[in-house]
Amino acid sequence: MMKFIIRRLLSLIPTMFIIITLSFFLIHIAPGGPFSGEKKLPPHVLANILKKYHMDEPLGAQYLRYLNDVILHFDLGPSYRYEDQSVNGLISATMPRSIFLGFVSLLLSVALGGAAGIISALRQNKWQDYLSMSVAVIGISVPLFVIGPVIQLIFAMQLHWLPVTGWINSRAGWVTLIMPAVTLAFPYFAYIARLSRGSVLEVLRSDYIRTARAKGLKESVVIGKHVLKGAMLPVVSYLGPAFAGIITGSIVVETVFQIPGVGRIFVQSALNRDYTLIMGDIITYSAVLVFANFLVDVIYGFLDPRIAYK
Amino acid sequence: MATNAVNEFNQQVKPVSLWADAWKRLRKNRMSLFGLWVVGIYFLVALAAPILPLYDYTEQNLNHVNLPPSLKPAGVVAVAQEQKAIDQITDLVKNQGRADLQPNLDQKIAEMAQLQASLAADPTSNNVYIFGTDYLGRDMLSRVIYGGRISMMIGLVGTITAVLVGIIIGAIAGYAGGRLDNFLMRFVDIMYGLPYMLIVIILMSMVPQGTNSTVVLFVAIALVSWLTIARVVRGQIISLKNSEFVEAARSMGAGTGRIIFRHLLPNTLGVIIIFSTLQMPSFIMNESFLSFLGLGVSAPAASWGTLVSEGVQGMELYPWRLLVPAIAMTLFLFAMNFLGDGLRDALDPQSKNRA
User: Fold this and answer.
1) Rounded to a whole number, what is the distance in Å from the CA of B337 to chain A's nearest CA?
2) Which of A70, A167, A188, B16 has the smallest number of CB atoms closer than 10 Å to its CB?
3) B86 & B170 share domain
4) Could you tell me which residue, A103 or B15, shows the higher pLDDT?
């Protein structure tokens, strides 16, 4: 097991390296830069700016410099657009909010989705099943940027129960977290509900459940101990993609609810062509994602003894 | 399948093709059939949009700004809206002692006279906007239909590109095996590790301002979306390539290309069709996602995502501007998902829901 973890950890290194390289060259072959906006800069000013950011050097040298900064110093460079701010500073200021929002949403979707799926499977073709599966279909078909504004319209603008936008602060309190977290969790709630319903149904039909019942175990023990453990495996393996989805989804949710998180910075940097910031975001996002996938693999290994680590 | 097949009682049975069988099963599934109808109608309307009696989706009419959905002519609706505003202010002035609003009331009444005069002179005031108008007085109905055309086209083109590239790469990797397979699949693995929408966002941000971003959007979405289908096709090919019918074809002298395209790929068709129908809504969602962020289709063209994002601004006062495109889009995505689920049950012999 330990060997597997180490091997899996080491395999993250080439992945990250390729991501950094790919994004660097992708961005640097793009026509137009952050300084070629509507306002033409005088040539000597432009030359000075390019010199300041080492953009006058050949591409290879720039690449090596960037690689050196990122890998050895964890330094993602200065932002081109936000003057006097480093990419590190911008990301570390906004990241905690996004991570927190994503984490709450993931927790919400796993807890509620899992519960809805299990209840649907145990009450198959009863009203509980139909209700939760109908909600799940809505969650899968309706895009985030429709759900968000519509619940804003209903719960904030019509009913005045919750603030329209904003993020946790001393004045508004924690209520600002409710709508963004619910919006972001909704699609993954739907997937997890469908997934866990299917897998509980499958496990219920399996031989080892029949054995457990034949032994005379109480129904609550059969469900709680034997069914759930087997049925949660597909859900755990879905956590990786769900996490990736929540990361991209939080871009929309942060835009809709005006949360100052990484997602908004990322969209801003893409619109501004703030290349260092775009790359910093990509590298941070990928690192988080790659590491999350690694964690999912490890958790999966603990849960499923049938997996052999070779 | 032989034409003179017999069952265990030695009776002649009519052979049923995969498609006839699938169609039979699909017809039994009411939700999928509903999905098929809705998708069919959407495509028909999108195709026929230029010959339908619609108002131009780019035509702005400043007398018709933000009209609510109504079956009455625009002139009547506009006057009613203005009258409602006047009534409100009159009520404030007369009954709640806000005499300070009197100048506003006078101004509104003057505006009303002006509006009535300009509506009387304008032949377009007989236009009927059943879905209302947006902030520039454009017809929401025709904007939703034309927006749907773009969204559906991106979904279609994206799916076709993804499927073609995916099939070719997957078939090559699966059939060749060995080092080539290893290389291609490592590449796919790494691409999988990347947050897919982020790459599309970068690609979109690289486009020089002013170019036709719709084309770039096609390319960007297609470039990163063939991964799943490549994996699926590869798996299918690997499981089939050592089967007897391939052996037979090879022993009869069939070449690699013939084996792949005539013998192996038709066997993966079911999976590919299911994948495509389930992929299309996700393409549409992704495109709308980009348009919503302002990185997608550029004006004057508009997709459903653009319309939703326009609708979000001012949704408190003019909720139809958000709800009309949102409902149109959601209904289509619903229908596509039902259709995809139904096709999976109909085409996949291993499907659990199969009757």
Assistant:
1) 7
2) B16
3) no
4) A103
Range of lowest pLDDT (A153-162, B165-174, B206-215, B318-327): B206-215
In a domain, residue B6? The reply is: no
Are the beta carbons of B271 and B232 closer than 8 angstroms?
yes
Three-state DSSP string of A254-285? HHHCCCCCHHHHHHHHHHHCCHHHHHHHHHHH
Helix (H, G, I), strand (E, B), or coil: what is residue A253?
helix
- B66 half-sphere exposure, CB direction, 13 A CA radius: 12
3-state secondary structure of A78: strand
Tokens of B352: 């659990």
Task: Determine which helix (DSSP H) or strand (DSSP E) holds B287, and give its type and residue range.
Answer: helix B265-293
Question: Tokens 């326009």 belong to which residue?
Answer: B310
Question: Is B315 among the domain residues?
Answer: yes
> What is the residue range of B121's domain?
70-126
Compute the distance between CA of residue A168 and CA of residue A149 in angstroms, rounded to an integer: 19
Measured between beta carbons, which residues in chain A are less than 8 angstroms from residue B291?
none
Domains of chain A are 87-204+232-309 (1.10.3720.10)
Higher pLDDT pick, B248 / A244: B248
> Do the interacting molecules here have an ipTM over 0.90?
no
B9 located within any domain? no
Residue in A closest to B206 by C-alpha: A30
* Contact state of B293 with A142 under an 8 Å Cβ cutoff: no
Residue B12 main-chain phi, psi, to 5 deg: -65, 130
Whether the CB-CB separation of B346 and B16 falls below 8 Å is answered with no
Residues of A in contact with B334 (CB under 8 A): 137, 141
Calculate the dihedral angle through the C-alpha atoms of A96, B199, A251, A12, rounding to the nearest 10 degrees. Answer: -30
Residue whose C-alpha is closest to residue A253's, from A98, A92, A90:
A98
Tell me the pTM. Answer: 0.77
Interchain pair B337, A137: CB under 8 A: yes
Chain B residues close to A281, C-beta within 8 Å:
198
Contact (CB<8Å) A141/B326: no
B322 touches chain A (CB under 8 A): yes
Q: Report the C-alpha gap between B142 and B148 in whole angstroms.
A: 10
Asked whether the beta carbons of A273 and A32 are under 8 A apart, the reply is yes
Are B210 and B104 in a shared domain?
Answer: no
CA A57 from chain centre, in angstroms, equals: 36
- Residue B336 has a pLDDT of 86
B174 and B274 part of one domain: yes
Cα(B52)–Cα(B73) distance, integer angstroms: 19
Q: Say yes or no: B96 and B191 in one domain.
A: no
B169 plus B281 within the same structural domain: yes
B185 interaction partners in chain A (CB closer than 8 Å): none
Which residues from B are below 8 Å from A30, CB to CB? 205-206
Domain count, chain B: 2
Identify all chain A residues contacting B197, using CB atoms and an 8 Å cutoff. Answer: 248, 251
Query: Across the interface, do A290 and B312 touch by the CB < 8 Å criterion?
Result: no
B186 to chain A: closest CA residue = A15
Residue B4 confidence class, pLDDT cut points 50, 70, 90: low
My answer on whether omega of the bond before B325 falls inside 30° of 0, hence cis, is no
A46/B contact by beta carbon, under 8 A: no
Clarify whether residues B95 and B187 are in a common domain: no
Among B81, B106, B126, residue at a domain's last position: B126
Q: Chain-centre distance of CA B345, in angstroms? A: 22
Q: Tell whether B119 is covered by a domain.
A: yes
Residue of chain B whose Cα is closest to the Cα of A256: B312
